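re: that chain from earlier
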Amino acid sequence: MAKLIVNTLLFQLGWFACVFGGDSLWLLTVAGVVAVHLLWTSSWAAEGKLLVSVFIAGSALDSFLLNLGVFDFGEPRTLIPLWLAGLWLLLATTLNHCLAWTAQPWWRGSLLGAIGAPLSYYGGAQIAGVGLPYGTWQSLLLIGATWALVMPVLHGFAKLYRSQYEQSLHARQSV
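^ sequence. v structure.
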């Protein structure tokens, strides 16, 4: 239970560092959170694959939304800023830990995504000065609908890598 609380607190610390710090040295907080996370996990390989997959998929998704005009960072860009990509890395650290309860049944993840993601994006946008050109409610509804689909997919990544780790562990023990 203590590790789940620490996992939650580390995620929140990283979230604040990214949103308040932007693309500054505060991003080193993300590196620290990830380092602590990896030190506590039993499988660096499986957890590392999950972190990289969520980072890439999430950054691509938010960059896609950026190019659709959902976000305005105050300057022309085609890729999201590093601080927003860092939030995806932080989220990945929670999937097998403090957010594991949202994996089964699938609708828990969808519900969390549909409600929690718009709140997080709205709070982050307000703090970081990110515009929502489609309008607040329209953007938040789109984000909520997207995340209702995204969370079960992210849990699918987590399950896949966890399963691969367990299979390789079993194979090593059989030898």
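The chain has one domain: 2-174.
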